[in-house]
Specification:
mainly alpha; Glycosyltransferase; 3-stranded antiparallel β-sheet; two-stranded antiparallel sheet; about 55% helix; globular; binds glycine
Length: about 400
Amino acid sequence: MKTAIILLLAVNTALSGVIDNALKQIEQQLSFLVEQTDNIRTQNSNPKLIMPRSLKSDGSIKMVNQDDWCSGFYPGTLWQMYRITREDRWRQEAARNTTLLEQVQHHSGSHDIGFMICCSFGNGYELTKDETYRNVILAAANTLTKRFNPTTGCILSWSWGKDKWKFPVIIDNMMNLELLYQASLLSGDKHFYDIALSHASRTLENHFRADNSTYHVVDYDPENGIVRRKMTFQGHHDESVWSRGQGWALYGFTMSYRYTHNRKFLERAQHVADFFFSQKDLPEDFIPYWDMKDPNIATQPTLVPRDASAAAIMASALYELAEYSSKKVASRYRGYADKILTSLCTKYLNKPGTQHGFLLSHSTGNWPANDEIDVPLNYADYYFLEAISRNKNSHP
Ligand code: GLY
């Protein structure tokens, strides 16, 4: 027992040294991203392209407009940096970039308003208690409720693709529930909470396979709420294990447990983690292949792209999951997260002054569409910093 505690302390101390070293690089690299982003905004022929999302195949920055699902991650990353360092310059940068997304509160065309607003205004409110942020959060939550259908019990994910599905709900959508849970707490209006609870319960019921992996898309019939089809859009095939989807499930149900204390949500998150980290093909550094059922893993694994974004999302979720789990299981979850963070900090972190300032390399956005493969992605950076912050605050 004593030896185990000493070993654990040694591992924790080693990782905190790794993280502190990485943070020196991260500060420089994020300053570079701020500089690059501001330059592009000044030169840009399209003033609507305001937020850095990734790199294009020619190596230049891919900028997106406020309605892109990734628009909140850059301000969110700056808020995470402020959370970690408490340096006022990061608060100012984060606030300046958050304000640019003010109109997103009215954007009813996407379920991803949760990502956009929680990362920017949500973090901003938590860290500053600025009332204008609170008002945006409440208005945005109200906008999101317009996508709820009481017959399916779910929030509609995509408004496009009517030839492929009727009422698609993707596992990613679990992440957007945080906006509703938060709005309910801030306003005392239970309506927001009820919608989030309904969506999470239906997802629990219909999205998971017997082995505890998740489907990407479940298509409902909006007339009667019956499931029409279970399939993928961003994974390798319908029955495959798209890594980022498993990450959204793990994070989404852990976060839903935080707000509801529903033990079924906690158990679901634990089962997802147990399933994923027992995959025989999981690479030794714990940065997963973009899809764990890509058939090329068996024959030419080095050619199969990894997804650092999935790893970062999982690491962040695992630190929170550990807080809610029994001691024995918690140390296993913290161990997985520590291993991921060690790999990200030592092998995937870009050197200062490279990659236009993005923090992590080797993420995969949309493999079936041949889009954003083996590139930096702003959401990988966001969850990486959140995981670092959680590691620093975790209580083993
Ligand atoms: N929500 C889209 C994705 O994870 O790629």
